[in-house]
Write a structure and sequence with these properties.
Blueprint: H1 2-15, H2 19-31, H3 33-50, H4 60-89, H5 94-117
Helix pairs in contact: 1-4, 2-3, 2-4, 2-5, 3-4
Amino acid sequence: MWLAVFFGASVLVALTPGANNLLGMHRGVHHGPLRASTALLGRLAAFSLMVDPARGPIPLQLATLGAVYLAAEALAGTAYVALGAGIRKAGLTRRAKARLDKGTAAVLFGMAGVLATSRT
């Protein structure tokens, strides 16, 4: 039960537009789904090194949580790549793609500003 709740929360966190997800969407828009998926696999490989249980004696439960979060991150990353590929298929002009890039940058800066000024 707790694993299902953790997976649900992980998916919600992973779907939040962060740098990795927006990078996946950007690559999907500008380079297509194949190259974007390859880049996503590289980012997931880096995440797996961070949660690798062989790096030290960590409990099996913690390793399981890391693997579950990695699965949620893969699901969210795939969704952002698919979104980017869909935008690419829509045939946006170069100017519209540039505006989309600026918009995603504004989202990241806005989120960073909110986090920087929060009192938690």
